[in-house]
Amino acid sequence: MELSKIGLSLGFLCFFFLHGVLACSTRKVHHYSFIVSETNFTRLCITKSMLTVNGQWPGPTIQVRKGDTAFVQVHNHGKYGITIHWHGVKQPRNPWSDGPENVTQCPIQPGKSFIYEVTFSDEVGTVWWHAHSDWSRATVHGAIVILPARGTTYPFRKPDAEKVLVLGEWYNGDLKEIIDKATESGAPPEESTAYTINGQPGFPNNCSKETTYRLQVQYGKTYLLRLVNAVMNEEMFFGIANHKLTVVAQDGAYIKPITTDYIMTSPGQTMDILLIANQPPSHYYIAGSPFFDAGFIATYDSSNTSAILEYTGNFAPPASPPYPSLPNIRNRAAADNFTKRIRALASRAHPVNVPKKIDTKIFMTVGLNELLCPDATCGGPNGNKLSSSLNNISFVTSTIDILQAYYRDLPGVFKKDFPDKPLYVFNYTGEVADNTLYPLQGTNVTMIDYGASVEIVLQGTSVQFGEFHPMHLHGYSFYWVGTGYGNYDETTSPKTYNLKDPPEVNTVGLPRNGWVAIRFVANNPGVWFLHCHLERHASWGMSTVIIVKNGPTKETSIRPPPPNLPSCS
Ligand SMILES: *[C@@H]1O[C@H](CO)[C@@H](O)[C@H](O)[C@H]1NC(C)=O
Ligand SMILES: *[C@@H]1O[C@H](CO)[C@@H](O)[C@H](O)[C@H]1NC(C)=O
Ligand SMILES: *[C@@H]1O[C@H](CO)[C@@H](O)[C@H](O)[C@H]1NC(C)=O
Ligand SMILES: *[C@@H]1O[C@H](CO)[C@@H](O)[C@H](O)[C@H]1NC(C)=O
Ligand SMILES: *[C@@H]1O[C@H](CO)[C@@H](O)[C@H](O)[C@H]1NC(C)=O
Ligand SMILES: *[C@@H]1O[C@H](CO)[C@@H](O)[C@H](O)[C@H]1NC(C)=O
Ligand SMILES: *[C@@H]1O[C@H](CO)[C@@H](O)[C@H](O)[C@H]1NC(C)=O
Ligand SMILES: *[C@@H]1O[C@H](CO)[C@@H](O)[C@H](O)[C@H]1NC(C)=O
Ligand SMILES: [Cu+2]
């Protein structure tokens, strides 16, 4: 059912890679049409109207080969402005098509449309797309499958078939009302009612048992599962009863295969997983359960979601199929045991080019905060509003996109003074005084020279309380070189780095009261959002913007804006 795909053309063309090398290849151009509109869905005995693309939830899958281009025409038939982000696609020199609202574009207004040019470069495997305005990404999202370049193949045995699995979250209420209400009151937003696999909560939810997603397999065959974590506010454990999973790629880059009983995935991440159907033909539960690591009794959805792995053949289906054993919701050791095994493939065909000498170092604290409320009349803790920040600055979204303001030199939209280290040094993960709770607020960006080797250390804090944060950078994937608990130490922490085969990802899990170090070469000029991929934290201001300046040539500079950019009101 590829109604969204409207065309394909093949051209022999030459183009410059980011590093300035001229390359020629058969590069296909794909055309898709996305109609964003309100559609009725029934789950958990509730019928509600929600925003979807082409009436589908999850939305249509985009399929390309490495290095192709997809033009996606997005028509907004909804009630509010919307933007779409191509999560994990670097969009070389073309931030105009990246999507975050008022960062790289103003929203596509109701009744209007915009054509995104999605330029693939070195990504391979699975990434995804989602809305990047208010909370509409809960229902406006889908997978992007990137097959190996023409004439090449997988660095593992070719699977017999491939399946997309999208982990999501169902809210009984209206998403726009939920976030608007929380923003106004300062209270935490209402949690979801269920997690979903391909849009279905599954067993044991009464009303949705019949519609549980079924993954059909044949005994003896190997399947490539392309798992997208589109959950809004919690990390997830995932497993299949009696079956091993072999993870072969994450975030659009290959890793050394990891064979495991369960995985942990955070919102924003994607994983390619090999599944061998080698168990007695029967039914087995596929399940996801939340992992939530916060030093506080915050609200979260504690339910499980399930689908069924259904073998073909003649057998009496079990009344209650085996259920996978997944770690408990608070089991941080189990989460760490999985993530610490992730290593880049680092083969001759898929090399690691981690920068060894660093030109630009940024140290950034990640914290939860409160905004003082007059007479303590707000709905958050202490009568305040919940907030969050990076380096103690809570991001304020501008009303003209930062990209346009930067490109056209419009004054007063943002400040180029995001601090490269905290203004106030304290014991980040220790006891923190209550008066440090209140952040600064602003639209402050970091300017980075083209070609610089960059290291960013993200430091979790216990301001208000510590929590796990999946941090996502647009425009790049980066090497995740180090991680630890407690405060980052400039002398001892770098000695623990993996510079040999660090995974190349676009979203990294910052452990509660811990740190992560990431490295990349700033070879993609543009305006790039950096934020927590837990939606409530991002809504509270856990975001910032990195501007990578133009290089010396046209081929190392931002492309001119497309003619049909949505206008800012
Ligand atoms: C959606 O459901 C509502 C009632 O719940 C109904 O009024 C409306 O016509 C439905 N819309 C569509 C497109 O079916
Ligand atoms: C779901 O099933 C349980 C029994 O398994 C029952 O008590 C409950 O009322 C049902 N809920 C709905 C909404 O049907
Ligand atoms: C949900 O998953 C957790 C972890 O595997 C398990 O302890 C719990 O029993 C599951 N709940 C249900 C209803 O199956
Ligand atoms: C984590 O791994 C260690 C060593 O492999 C093991 O001893 C421990 O039981 C594991 N913990 C969990 C919670 O899985
Ligand atoms: C983005 O800017 C528009 C005006 O162009 C404004 O209406 C909208 O509220 C802004 N969005 C956010 C999230 O601030
Ligand atoms: C920071 O706080 C932690 C936890 O309270 C404590 O163990 C550590 O000693 C403190 N570090 C310093 C340098 O004070
Ligand atoms: C954040 O900045 C405010 C205003 O300067 C200050 O009161 C507060 O202590 C700072 N908090 C942290 C964690 O640096
Ligand atoms: C950040 O930007 C705001 C305006 O958006 C400005 O008032 C403030 O001085 C800037 N710098 C810092 C460090 O907050
Ligand atoms: Cu967060």
Automatic annotation (TrEMBL):
Gene Ontology terms describing biological process: lignin catabolic process
EC number: 1.10.3.2
Location in the cell: Secreted, Extracellular space, Apoplast
Database matches in Gene3D superfamilies: Cupredoxins - blue copper proteins
Cofactor(s) needed for function: Cu cation
Region called Disordered, residue ranges: 184-203
Location of the Plastocyanin-like domain: 36-148, 163-314, 421-550
UniProt biased composition (Polar residues): 193-203
UniProt entry keywords in alphabetical sequence: Apoplast, Copper, Glycoprotein, Lignin degradation, Metal-binding, Oxidoreductase, Repeat, Secreted, Signal
GO molecular function: copper ion binding; hydroquinone:oxygen oxidoreductase activity
Cofactor mode of binding and number, as noted: Binds 4 Cu cations per monomer.
Catalytic activity: 4 hydroquinone + O2 = 4 benzosemiquinone + 2 H2O
Function of the molecule: Lignin degradation and detoxification of lignin-derived products.
PANTHER family documented for this protein: LACCASE, MULTI-COPPER OXIDASE
Annotated protein name in UniProt: Laccase
Native organism: Carya illinoinensis
